[in-house]
Predict the structure.
Amino acid sequence: MRKSLNSRQHLEEIKSRILRIEENSERKWGKMNAAQMLRHCDRILQVGFGKIVLPKINPFIKSIGILTKIEMNIFNNGIPPNMPTFKEVIIKENCNFEKSRQELLASIDEFAEKSAKNNLLSEHALFGKMTKEDWGFLEYKHLDHHLKQFGV
């Protein structure tokens, strides 16, 4: 089953899992702690709103991103651990855990509002042309990936 943040049921499932993370939850891979992961996920959502702008990338790398989006849509596969990302969404600074969680939950609600009004960006620096269905699916996959990283 393809899950999406455009589904109220799947959106509430993600929010419930976010509420189960604790400040000292141990990661299974990567470098971020739980607060940094929450902030990172918030920034990724903000890309879809246009609040965070990702740089243009090499056309060859973008073509790989577009093919990856197509593959994920066809096979409903997830994101592998330790994938590289844009520096604009890498979190190295210390973050307040509860503030990061509340900001992420607020951004998820903002995502739902903007998606319902079809008011998300129509282009992504890596994945190319985007529909609200693409955004809902890929944002769910990204959040699910990091929640699994912390065991929820």
Summary: The longest strand covers residues 123-124. Residues 8-18+28-56+92-120+132-149 form one domain.
